[in-house]
TrEMBL record, chain A:
<feature type="compositionally biased region" description="Low complexity">
    <location>
        <begin position="135"/>
        <end position="161"/>
    </location>
</feature>
<comment type="pathway">
    <text>tRNA modification; 5-methoxycarbonylmethyl-2-thiouridine-tRNA biosynthesis.</text>
</comment>
<dbReference type="GO" id="GO:0002098">
    <property type="term" value="P:tRNA wobble uridine modification"/>
</dbReference>
<feature type="region of interest" description="Disordered">
    <location>
        <begin position="126"/>
        <end position="161"/>
    </location>
</feature>
<dbReference type="InterPro" id="IPR018627">
    <property type="entry name" value="ELP6"/>
</dbReference>
<protein>
    <submittedName>
        <fullName>Uncharacterized protein</fullName>
    </submittedName>
</protein>
<dbReference type="GO" id="GO:0033588">
    <property type="term" value="C:elongator holoenzyme complex"/>
</dbReference>
<feature type="region of interest" description="Disordered">
    <location>
        <begin position="196"/>
        <end position="219"/>
    </location>
</feature>
<dbReference type="InterPro" id="IPR027417">
    <property type="entry name" value="P-loop_NTPase"/>
</dbReference>
Automatic annotation (TrEMBL), chain B:
<comment type="pathway">
    <text>tRNA modification; 5-methoxycarbonylmethyl-2-thiouridine-tRNA biosynthesis.</text>
</comment>
<keyword id="KW-0539">Nucleus</keyword>
<feature type="compositionally biased region" description="Low complexity">
    <location>
        <begin position="386"/>
        <end position="401"/>
    </location>
</feature>
<keyword id="KW-0963">Cytoplasm</keyword>
<dbReference type="GO" id="GO:0005737">
    <property type="term" value="C:cytoplasm"/>
</dbReference>
<dbReference type="InterPro" id="IPR008728">
    <property type="entry name" value="Elongator_complex_protein_4"/>
</dbReference>
<dbReference type="GO" id="GO:0002098">
    <property type="term" value="P:tRNA wobble uridine modification"/>
</dbReference>
<comment type="similarity">
    <text>Belongs to the ELP4 family.</text>
</comment>
<dbReference type="Pfam" id="PF05625">
    <property type="entry name" value="PAXNEB"/>
</dbReference>
Amino acid sequence: MPPPSSTRIPPLLQPCVQLPTHDSILLVTSTLGASVNWLLVRFLCNALNNPHQPSSFTSSSSNNNAENTDDDEEFNVVLVSWMRDYEFWKSEARKSGGVDLDRLRRDGRVAVVDGLSGVFLGSGAEKEDDDVARRSSSSFASARGGVPSSPISSAPAPAPAPARAGIAMAPGRGPMTTMRTMAGGGGGTMMAAKRDTAVSSSTPSTSTSTPTPAPQTQTQKQGLFILSSPDLAHVQSIISAAVTSLSTATSGGPTRKTLVILDNPDLLLATSSTTTTTKNTAITTPASLTSLFLTLHALPTVAHVAVHLQADTPLLHTPASLTGLHQQQQPPPLEIAQRNLLVKTAFMSSRVLGVRVLDTGVARDVSGVLRVTEEGGGGIKREVLYRVGGDGGVRVFERGGGG
Amino acid sequence: MSFRKRNIALTRTPQSPSTSESTSTPSSPSSAAQQEPQHPSAPTPGVRPSPINGLPTTSTGTPSLDAILAGHAGLPLGTSLLLGETGTTDYAGALLRFYAAQGVVHGHCVHVVGVGSAWGRELPGIADGRGSEKGGSGGEKGGKMKIAYRYERLGVLGEERAGGRDRGSSSANRGDGGDDTAPAVFCHTFDLLKRLDLPVGTAINYIPIPRTTTSPFVAILQNLQRQLASSAPGTIHRLVVPSLLSPVLFPPQSSHPSAVLQFLHALRALLRQYPTRLTAMISLPLSLYPRATGLVRWAELLSDGVFELSPFAHSHLESLATSAGTTKDEEKPQGMFTVHKLPIFHEKGGGGGGAEGLGEDLAFTVSRRKFVIAKFSLPPLEGDTEAQAEAGRAAAGGETTMPKKADLEF
């Protein structure tokens, strides 16, 4: 077990992850090579007010600590991750934060929404279903006739059924569920539910837009929800269900508020089909995503929403990246959308934490730079360096103050 | 050095006294340490725990690529690598072939997207002198017998030098024990001029790219999922995607973000779903899809490891001149190898553990037998004899030159 000083929240980081007193939206940005998972884990630990947290901080952070105990505000946490699976968060939270997500999930303090395993892996089969449904209604043979050479989808009529059965069978089989109890098992039930709906209704119509069978099966795994579609209405309903599933009652006090952590919701933007078709999923735009953030923030028990977005230069198409070869060209819609989303969210949020790699190159004793911009207190800006250790502990220090 | 040890471990494990040429090599630290890490990896061939955190890893088929993977000494299972390459060369393809060939040799299920069986027939075979006994193919042995003594010795020497260099570049990685002892079964040496004898029950699953009007990746994923679900629980799978989004292989609509990014996201989900069974390696032509675009950046974010290969501009005259020269010149690097992201390492936040290649100038050298990634340093300028002589004089009489210069400036 590493020393507590390295695993817990360092004094310099404490004010960054300390949630504001008023309800707020927080923005956390990261770049390639400077992931922000360690910071989100610190948010998680801080909000859950981890009982293992050492009460004796160093003298420099004693006021922070006092404030912390003053509020003594514990939060429920809903962690929505589109990039990382639950296993990753569980092990990271345990190793670097000393937080047992499994236990807290059972206690109703934490709900995890898995946006990785089911969104596109499952939707492949569903798209197939939708395609088949549409084509069988209109002109199935002609639509399929153009691809006779393809061995995958060559057999026209029976093709959808084995494909769907294969997909549905995949996560539900024994070895996988035993290996991957949480996510895999949940996926299995999810898939089974989908298959049931598909089989029971002879014409498997738009099953993506109706997530009705999903929440019932998911709540059996307490506190673990799985998104099965990138559709924002579905996302919103699942996250809302996750928020309401948490127990807000505290031991003799005001109701416990909730912190919602959204890890890479911009992935929905990047993967949304903007131009191709407008079939099952509504187009995800920056505006619809920010309105999702606001809707979640407006939920009665939600106090804070922490949004993690990517802020890589190529994704934003800033003037700096425009100096390249295609200056005259209109930037692709992907970059425009990402920049819109980031700017909109930054204006909405009361604190922006930006994580990037060192501008001067890779250093052995520095992992990256954390820049904090606080809106409330007169625009506090500060930059600190951080280093994530191999044990998961993080060291945060001023520029030049490493050692 | 690592090649040597691999050689020794090979001869010791099968207890075959016939291979006596390798006994002359210097011995590795201790045979006890040699045997120890092989036991946990016994059930699944080609898988061994990472020396850092015990994650199961598998070899990429390229020892020096294994060595720069953040100290894991292999590609952790459940992760993916994205190799971007600029220019019209196909060095990344060589890495993919090594990766696939290593999978075939270990008996893993290899899935290749978009190319036909010709690609599989051109996989490099196991190099002579090492691994051929392990590979258990009689043809290899026969081929070995035909080689004259001289050349065999030369080959061994060349390997030794390369191994020494490799060791020098990653000594910190390999120093921490249990690392350089297992590769006897972990990573073979392949010969690009030989052809791998594919096992009878074709170990390679060629996933075709369907010519649909929608995303072709849906069918690819379904194929992969079916294979994963229908195979035995212990089997290791490798997914190889050569030249992702290349217009030669992929239909135009596949480069739309909604197609390729959904595929990469689903692949990421699949890798996390099978954290002990699946790895993937993808190459991407960066000349067609520059790194400055958001699409490529998202692809990199969705991959676990990101490397960039930038081959040097090829000069035909220069290559002619050097090919006739000594063997020193064939070590000339062929391009730069940039590490942008490492599996596991960057996911945790980037720090701790030996991220050797990160931030260093790395160059790669491809020769018949190996793909070496080593630290890059500019050679002394050729033809600049005056400066070299100057340097030589300065080195010879360090004390005397200094006052001379001072006198001049005075």
